[in-house]
Amino acid sequence: MAISQTMCSSFKQQILLAEHDLDTDVIKIALYTSAATLSAATTAYTTSGEVVGVGYVAGGETLTGAVVSLDGIAAIVDFNDVSWAASTITARGALIYNSSKSNKAIAVLDFGADKTTTAATFTINFPAAAAGSAVIQIS
Question: Phi and psi of 104, rounded to 5°?
């Protein structure tokens, strides 16, 4: 199994078809174990390989604070950091998806290695909202 960090191919097409509104739709992030297969070919949220553990609920968390902007010629999206308090989980990656639009996949995050918490807060810190570092960007 493998997790490959990428923007999902289906999302790129759906953006051109105006199927997503990232600052008003409900955008979620789900955590996955190394047993998951997530790549550019991922089209929707799935429970296959999703994290199971204390403090984690299937489907993940809703991302808040979405800001869509331009940085030079790059269109970028930024979200508030997200966390799972008092969790005991192991995650290798995550899927950002649009729960307002039939759970359509947006982007895959690869943590590079398993990340584990034991009765602690698991946090995803989103990088700076800038071209070259934003998790979701089109340039």
Answer: -65, 135
